[in-house]
Write a structure and sequence with these properties.
mainly alpha, SLC26A/SulP_fam, transmembrane helix, 2 domains, transmembrane, Sulfate permease, two-stranded antiparallel sheet
Length: 420
């Protein structure tokens, strides 16, 4: 359970430091708008996304079991975070995140990191696609510039509310959102190592500011972003609150563990390395405790940002530490500029993120798998979108393990880790 940074530092060189620094800066430019957008989509203040990227991102790289893992807020948490905030308030989310961190540390100490191999892959694919559907649906009001006084949390009532608000369509907002999405796709294909995501959002947001277009921005909706980290403090703790938030804490811990280990598996294939799963789970626990103490969101290893780090030349945990410090520097020096980011631009960014999460290039493979796996995926997907994430995970894992027992003895099936 030894952190990877202790393995890499004894053989660290100036060339590695330069490569890690450049990679860390590149990843920070990607993580900055994503962290803001994920926080907003989760129903939280956008500054909470920056706090999470800084605190959790630093701890995941410092203590983690992967050489190249980048941590922070991710789209996988949006659904559960939104639900916890709606039911228990933001202070309830902080306590649930703190509890999830303790659960993850206990799992790491008990060396449960290897148990990811027993979670059925169709379950992971099903709730990942389901989360992508929910994220995309949640961003449609900002993409279309709709005016909705009280947007419902549940999927079907939310779609109904958007349909009834269709007369409030803002064509300018829709144009900004679509332009941002097109720019992101074009820049990603033309220059995959360039932080085109930030450039696309910055360009369309600058157009909104300079042309005084009638489009909402981060500042117009939420006010000024924080220009420093808050002081750490504990949330209100009581036996009743611990009992009420325990299911949410387990869901957050499960998502953090699964997503981080999937990300580490992807990274291993890209760098031909081998991560330490139990050290990674311990780091996720410490990161979520740290994020909660500073009032941040749940965090985990971010697959897209980890892949970006590797492609930019990052090879040790120092790159992830640099990424966190760069975001901190931006918060301290340039927080007012981030307030100009246009809401439709961030919505377009998250819709593309949701699309990538669903891995459309694998849909044909999913649908041609054995019938029991297809049904397991569809059941998990439907429960994720229409019911509750905790229910989807519980039912999916139970059905998946039952199917595995029915098929007879044998080792766990290997993952096909996603690159989303």
């Amino acid at each position: 359970m030894k952190p990877k940074i202790l393995t890499t530092l004894p053989v660290y060189t100036r060339q590695l430091f330069l490569a890690d620094t450049l990679a860390g800066i590149s990843v920070a430019m990607v993580a900055l708008p994503l962290s803001l957008a994920i926080a907003i989509a989760s129903g939280a203040d956008p500054g909470k996304g920056l706090i999470t990227a800084i605190v959790a991102g630093f701890l995941i790289s410092l203590l983690g079991g992967s050489r190249v893992q980048i941590g922070g807020p991710t789209g996988a948490f949006i659904v559960v975070v939104f639900g916890v905030i709606a039911e228990h308030g933001y202070d309830g989310l902080v306590l649930a995140t703190l509890m999830a961190g303790v659960i993850l540390i206990a799992a790491g100490v008990l060396r449960l990191g290897n148990l990811i191999a027993y979670v059925p892959e169709p379950v992971v694919n099903g709730f990942t696609i389901g989360i992508g559907v929910i994220i995309a649906a949640s961003q449609l009001p900002d993409l279309f510039g709709l005016t909705i006084a009280d947007l419902p949390a549940d999927f079907l009532p939310k779609m109904s509310a958007m349909w009834h608000a269709r007369d409030s369509l803002n064509v300018t907002a829709l144009a900004i959102g679509i332009a941002t999405m097109v720019l992101i796709v074009v820049l990603r294909r033309a220059a995959p190592k360039f932080p085109g995501l930030l450039l696309a959002v910055a360009l369309t947001s600058a157009l909104v500011a300079l042309a005084l277009l009638p489009v909402e921005t981060v500042f117009s909706r939420f006010g000024a972003l924080p220009s420093a980290l808050p002081r750490p403090q504990l949330p209100e703790i009581s036996v009743e609150r611990l009992r009420d938030l325990l299911p949410s804490a387990f869901v957050i811990a499960f998502l953090a563990g699964v997503e981080s280990l999937l990300s580490a598996l992807v990274a291993d294939r890209m760098i031909e390395g081998r991560h330490r799963p139990n050290a990674e789970v311990l780091a996720q626990g410490a990161a979520n405790i740290g994020s909660a103490l500073f009032g941040g969101l749940p965090a985990t290893g971010a697959i897209a940002r980890t892949a970006t780090n590797i492609r930019a030349g990052g090879r040790t945990p120092v790159a992830g530490i640099v990424h966190a410090l760069v975001i901190l520097a931006v918060m301290l020096v340039a927080a007012p500029l981030a307030g100009y980011l246009a809401m439709p631009a961030l919505a377009g960014l998250l819709i593309l993120t949701a699309w990538n999460m669903s891995e459309p290039h694998k849909w044909r493979k999913h649908l041609t798998a054995r019938p029991s796996d297809v049904m397991l995926l569809l059941i998990t997907l439907a429960l994720t979108v229409l019911a509750d994430l905790a229910v989807a995970i519980g039912v999916g894992v139970a059905l998946g393990l039952a199917l595995r027992l029915r098929r007879g003895p044998g080792g766990p099936e290997g993952w096909t880790p996603p690159d989303r």
